[in-house]
Amino acid sequence: MTIPQSFDLVSGPHTDSWVFTLNDFNVSTTQVHAMRIADSGSKRHAVYIPAALGLFGLGDLLPELNASSPAAAASSVMSSAPSETRAQDVVQRLKQRESVIHSAARTDVLFQREAIPSADTNVGSDIGVDANSITYAELLDVTRPDSAYVSLDDTSSWISAVTEQRANTLSGDDTDSEPRVRFSPFHMDEKERANIEAVKICFRTGVTTCIPCLRPDCNAVLFNKREWSCSPSSRPQDFINVLKKPMASRPTVSVHAISGEASSSLPLPAVLTAPIRLDVVQQVHKSIAKNKRQAYSVNVKAGHQTSAESWGTGRAVARIPRVGGGGTHRSGQAAFGNMCRGGRMFAPTKIWRKWHVKVNQNQRRFAVVSALAASALPSLVLARGHRVEEIEEVPLVIASGVESFKKTKEAVALLKTLKAYNDVVKVSNSRKLRAGKGKLRNRRHRQRRGPLVVYNEDNGIVKAFRNIPGVELVNVRRLNLLQLAPGGHLGRFVIWTEAAFGLLDEVFGTFDKASTHKKDYLYVILAFFYDKVHGNTHFFAPISLPTAKISNPDVTRIINSDEIQSVVRPANSKHQKRPWTQHKNPLVNKAVLFRLNPYAKTLRRQEILKQERIKAKKDQKRTKAPKAAGDAFLKTLFAP
Amino acid sequence: MAPTTTVPSVSDIEVPETLLKKRKQNEKAREERVLAAVAARKAGKAKRKVVFKRAEAHVKEYLAKEKEEIRLKRAARTAGDYYVPAQAKVFFVVRIRGINEIAPKPRKILQLLRLLQINNGIFVKVTRATEQMLRLVEPYVTYGEPNLKTVRELIYKRGYGKVNKQRIPLANNSVIEEALGKLDILSVEDLVHEIFTAGPNFKQASNFLWPFKLSNPTGGWRTRKFKHYVQGGDFGDREANINKLIRQMN
């Protein structure tokens, strides 16, 4: 891994930033190098420290770095140029921390310290603990040694603090193509450091968090859900480039007042933009729907409450067990078999049949998220059968005042103004007697499902709406897949209250933010390790709100785009043309012969010419002038 | 300019972007195809010239060889010596017997020689090893040294090549060129030459040729097929008489 030289040293906007590059590109792991990067007068210095030193506060290693201002600190480092004594000094101190070094030798992480706006906050043995930031110790609350998780509340506030700070400092920047990672350095004690295996860097906000297991003997990283590896040539900033997504602007949904017209608006929660996976929803729904089942079985003793025995052979009857005794019709009758009247059934049903199906938590959440996203598409809601042709907007959000409704009359009136009452009418018109024995088993009627009202706080809304046929109510924190996708069919008509709609972002998190109501439903936080042995860089991300596998689903447009068409070869014809499959004999068919052997033509020609010449000569020889008859002959002929 | 009717006229409808793109692509593809065709034709003509020259050279070579043989024979006769012609370099082997009741070793050898069917024929280079193989399968095959005419006629009439494991007729020189081009065999005549003169790439050339599927001979086999040729049958080495048989079987 080479030093990313361009990493903010020369071109960054911060005049006071340092880069700590933890990299053991040097053979010796305990050398310290200080280099000065000249940059048109501004005092920026880089201190390169090998990875073996780890991620830790370097305050005690290089006390000069704790000077009042970073520039002063760096210059003090610089003024004493790498000299023997100084280096030895550092080596000494390093050796005292040998154990710490080895445990962290695996990681190569890039850090950049951000300039602290106010000059006086650089105090203490930490390197510039920000007044705004929480120290790691606080974060982890080390007084509770068995706490294994970073409290997400703290993290999010910490992160937002850092994000703000970053936003502030970046607001005046020129366009800087190099990504940067920032961290708020933290103070840790020996024990924590020894247990650290990984550093987590949030690439979105540039914040690092260490998530070690605080048990002294445990070296595990605490959430290790998925791990991906990258090509060996990746540099850290390549990662950052790859993973950085532009923050898309979110559409808004208008909130309808109780009187019906749109009043304010809310941004669309990220959940409603999640991918809609019908396969996941169907599978999860199928499994979850089985969880409310009650066991049934036949009586254990059924069919066996006789003492029947087979009569054996020799009595002109079948060998099936027969009821003994006498004095009643039953005696001599067959018993026990599944084919016998009054016998036990084949494979009597048992109550220990597996009635319930366990579904993975993340699958369940995925399905709910998908179903929610589907409820935001009017076409899907219509396709499911809800009568929502006339409503103003999907998703339908009503002002929070509705949560204090007490009277069903009010509720009905509201639904009518929202034009959602047609759905309720549909339900009441569809109320019919159930076919079959369910009638006698307290399932007498069947009807369609109406709107699902999602609220944040029940101040009477449940009682107001619950008697309306078809309407179901649910708290936004407890959304149920069986209600969001009844029958496994996506697109339930959902009526949100304003408070509930706004809470969706917190319940499910967004692509940037953790979920506060669900444990482990986190934002995209990543860690990466550089495996020096194999030269691989690994990073991983835990579970969060699902993203689509393909970000631009218009595949036709992608295929026909210039970028692809310019490198694509022209399409072959749909049907492959068969070559002429009749074999023609070259010994007979001259055209084929000449096609195969062009010289054959000249050979043939020469042959023909030769034959003609021979024939001509023969003819010449044969055609001689007829000789005139001799005198003796004529005399004899004409003799008298 | 809003039209007066709701039915749009041709000028109102905009051509979809993908359609325009496709038209452009098709134009480009057509031009490229035309250029490629012209270039291919030129290349084809050049190739034909090469093939012609080579065929001419081969014919000369064959004539020269024949004349040489005759000259040597005559020289020996006049000197009172005996001229011993060179041993055969190539044999043509034809399988005489069907597939049932063959002992394992001859069966394996027939498989190695690619004679898997009755009346299958192949060209085999004559070496100590192949001679021994033929000796082992003698009761099931007949073989001898083929003529130039035999070789030519076999390849022209019943020549198929092994292309991509398929049996493809040698309808074009391109079939041969694509398979054996890197061995400098570009046409049927080159192939004939390679086989007849047992050239350096004989193995690849004869392996390229699918085993010849010959007919039963017109005029029939001898009365008992499964005696050695010298005993009045048909199997074994029949030296130059193989040509007569192939004339009947081709």
TrEMBL record, chain A:
GO terms classed as biological process: translation
Cited Pfam families: Ribos_L4_asso_C, Ribosomal_L4
Listed Gene3D superfamilies: 3.40.1370.10
GO cellular component, as recorded: ribonucleoprotein complex; ribosome
Family of the protein in this entry: Belongs to the universal ribosomal protein uL4 family.
Ribonucleoprotein is among the record's keywords: yes
Keywords from the UniProt entry: Ribonucleoprotein, Ribosomal protein
InterPro entries: Ribos_uL4_C_dom, Ribosomal_uL4, Ribosomal_uL4_dom_sf, Ribosomal_uL4_euk/arc_CS, Ribosomal_uL4_euk/arch
GO molecular function: structural constituent of ribosome
Superkingdom, natural source: Eukaryota
Leader peptide range in chain numbering: none
Protein source organism: Antrodiella citrinella
Domain Large ribosomal subunit protein uL4 C-terminal span(s) in chain numbering: 544-616
Name the UniProt record assigns to this protein: Large ribosomal subunit protein uL4 C-terminal domain-containing protein
From TrEMBL, chain B:
This protein's UniProt keywords: Ribonucleoprotein, Ribosomal protein
Domain Large ribosomal subunit protein uL30 N-terminal eukaryotes: 15-86
GO cellular component, one term: cytosolic large ribosomal subunit
GO biological process terms held by the UniProt record: maturation of LSU-rRNA from tricistronic rRNA transcript (SSU-rRNA, 5.8S rRNA, LSU-rRNA)
Domain Large ribosomal subunit protein uL30-like ferredoxin-like fold: from-to ranges: 91-141
Superkingdom classification of source: Eukaryota
Any one GO molecular function term: structural constituent of ribosome
Family assignment from sequence similarity: Belongs to the universal ribosomal protein uL30 family.
PANTHER family: 60S RIBOSOMAL PROTEIN L7, LARGE RIBOSOMAL SUBUNIT PROTEIN UL30
Protein name as it appears in the record: Ribosomal protein L30 ferredoxin-like fold domain-containing protein
Organism: Antrodiella citrinella
